Amino acid sequence: MLLSDRKLKKFKELLQAKKLALLRAAQNTLDEDMKLEADEFPDEMDQASTEYLHSFTFRLRGREKTFLRKINHALSKVDKGTFGVCEECEEEISLKRLEARPIATLSVEAQERLFERFYRVPDD
């Protein structure tokens, strides 16, 4: 069951919308959240609190950067005609999985095998 053109278009639009939302959030962070005004910090506690919030925001943006890379990868797969194909076993990724996680690059089975290899407890 290869994805129909209609389904591919739907996924592409979804991925592009997610990408745009991430880029807008990042721009908002630069425009609004990261303004440090000296007169806004009447004491060291306020400044430390604000710096902590900024650090937390940057960590979130780092995660979003990773997510953006995955979105771009999925969009390139749509353009190449390989979207929905497992990168490990080259089997089709189920529609349910793609609907739940459109950036998925592995089938459920391949993901489970990877998880088992990574988290396998060594034999004594």
Largest sheet: none
Q: DSSP strand (E) fraction?
A: under 5%
Rg over CA atoms: 20 Å
**Helicity level, as a percent range?**
55-70%
* Content-based structural category: mainly alpha
Commentary on this structure:
The chain has 124 residues and is mainly α. Helix content is 68%, strand content 0%. Helix 1 packs antiparallel against helix 2 (44-80). The longest helix is centred in the middle third of the chain and has 37 residues, at 44-80. The model has no long low-confidence stretch (mean pLDDT 84).
Give me some keywords for this one.
single chain; 124 residues; mainly alpha; 4 helices
Topology:
Elements: H1 5-33, H2 44-80, H3 95-100, H4 108-119
Please sum up the structure shown.
The chain is mainly alpha-helical. It has helices spanning 5-33, 44-80, 95-100, 108-119. The chain starts with a helix and ends in a 5-residue tail after the last helix.
